[in-house]
Design a protein that fits this description.
Two copies of one chain form a homodimer. With about 290 residues, chain A is an alpha/beta fold. Chain A has two domains: about 1-175, HUPs (Rossmann fold), CATH 3.40.50; about 185-275, Pantoate--beta-alanine Ligase, Chain: A,domain 2, CATH 3.30.1300. Helices cover about 35% and strands about 20% of the residues of chain A. In chain A, the strands form two sheets. In chain A, strands 1-4-3-2-6-7 form a six-stranded parallel sheet, sandwiched between helices. The first copy, chain A, has a three-stranded antiparallel sheet with strand order 8-9-10, with helices on one face. In chain A, α2 (about 35-45) links the parallel β2 and β3. In chain A, α6 crosses α7 (about 150-165) and α8 (about 195-215) packs antiparallel against α9 (about 220-230). Chain A is globular, with a radius of gyration of 19 Å. The interface between A and B is medium-sized, with 32 and 32 residues.
Chain lengths: ~290, ~290
């Protein structure tokens, strides 16, 4: 496994792999790798001949006062995990190459980027869309793997890939959960033991919603009442949003009529967590646009 | 020469050329080809093994009330000219492929896109940046050729190619002028004989500015006074802007100290024309960022 920092080195390594007849898979990460990332990486290693993993805490997707400085950085452990998983190349970008002096270009996915995560974190999704476009242009993979936990990000990336005619297949992978049900997230490391227990209210609320839909409930306000009933009693948990949306457009829905994504963002102490589940008929295939 | 309309057909043709060991050149046009376009096309044919020309009047770079409907469309003559010049592939995009239902993604080059053409034509440069990004992702050329007449567009494209890490070399080509000095433009076809004579005030004003700088004038207001003296007496000519800018940033300059682009936009009757010239020390190399 090679670890490189320069765009030219990535291009040379990928060209070499292609000349050897290997297809190229790509996983974009901000490091602090956990089982969620590793499921994407393992799938890429299984599917393609050469897997590239980028490891970069992208400054433009953090707002002022957000946790850019505190975001966990564990490069050595990340590289060891990549090596063990069979990654061909780790790319650790230089900020001066991704954001050179006079950088002025932004990829904006209008509409999709404004509600939910976009409202809570202005410019977050613009930063994600822009850096993912750069990375896809540098690596030029055949397939790129993203997790469903960041559901709105996944929808934004699918849309920009289609709209900008980027020749890459986006593969969406299921959320990976720890034994207690909490979705893996790099930010989980920053939860105290007590906050970690409190954080389980997210997954409990989502499981309740799934259960209610399977039992025939289709009215979104009724689902939300019950979800609030799980989260509101947890003193340390503060709901930012709970919403039911169309997985392709992120437009709000009042009824569960076909695949419906229930998304939520909850602050537990000072750590903001997101999670989601897909409910409704055809939920298994939903959001595979 | 092949003429195709679908993204998949372009990709197949370009792959075929690459497999045959040919490099790929690209010229993006809105059709109505004139000597300016042909100079780009001929240079691409000379430089590369396979030249792709796109021919598409891109709706998103026209504002409401602009001349999208009236823009000249001469596809048959354009194809004949391409064939004669040695083009390998003409791509005539389908709007439903470039702007599918739910299209939401825009490439914005902040700052550079707001003054001058961006002020006169809001969203024009966003439309250009977005469609050029799409076309570069579809064709994936080694080199793409653009004319210096659209100076601000050239600067925006150079910037987005650098910022989005697009692996293409942008080649800037000199403005081609008719025997009377008027820069070739598809919109020239819409000038009456009288307007055409009036339109020469643009190039006369630019030549005067060049002459004055060569004679030692470095004060921009003095240059503009003299340029106004050429244009203002032409009753049918209405100046939108005259400006002296840095060719890489399009920031205004008050002194000619190094490469300086003098840009102007003038309406002659109902037809809006733009032109520019590069003056100052090192003018020959200026803007080659």
């Amino acid at each position: 496994m090679e670890v490189v920092t320069k765009i030219e080195e990535v291009r040379a390594a990928v060209s070499g792999a292609r000349e050897a007849g290997r297809s190229v898979g790509f996983v974009a990460t901000m490091g602090a790798l956990h089982e969620g990332h590793l499921s994407l990486i393992r799938r890429s290693v299984a599917d393609t001949g050469f897997t590239v993993v980028s490891n970069y805490v992208n400054p433009t997707q953090f707002g002022p006062g957000e946790d850019f400085e505190e975001y966990p950085r564990t490069l050595e452990a990340d590289n060891a995990a990549c090596e063990q998983a069979g990654v061909g190349l780790v790319y650790v970008p230089l900020t001066e190459e991704l954001y050179p002096t006079g950088h002025a270009t932004w990829v904006e996915v209008a509409g999709l980027s404004e509600a939910f995560e976009g409202k809570a974190r202005p410019r977050h999704l613009r930063g994600v869309a822009t850096v993912v476009t750069k990375l896809l242009n540098i690596v030029r993979p055949d397939r790129a793997y993203f997790g469903r936990k960041d559901a709105q990000q996944l929808t934004v990336i699918r849309r920009l890939v289609r709209d900008l005619c980027l020749p890459v297949e986006i593969v969406a992978m299921p959320t990976v959960r720890d034994a207690d049900g909490l979705a893996f997230s790099s930010r989980n490391r920053r939860l105290s033991a007590e906050e970690r227990r409190d954080a389980l209210c997210l997954v409990q609320a989502l499981r309740l919603a799934e259960h209610l839909v399977n039992a025939g409930e289709t009215e979104v306000p009724a689902l939300f009442d019950r979800m609030h009933g799980v989260i509101d009693p947890v003193a340390a948990a503060e709901i930012d949003y709970i919403a039911a949306v169309d997985p392709d457009t992120f437009l709000r829905k009042d009824h569960v009529d076909g695949p419906t994504l229930i998304v939520l963002a909850v602050a537990v102490g000072s750590i903001r967590l997101i999670d989601n589940c897909l409910v409704g008929r055809g939920a298994e295939q939903g959001g595979e646009a």
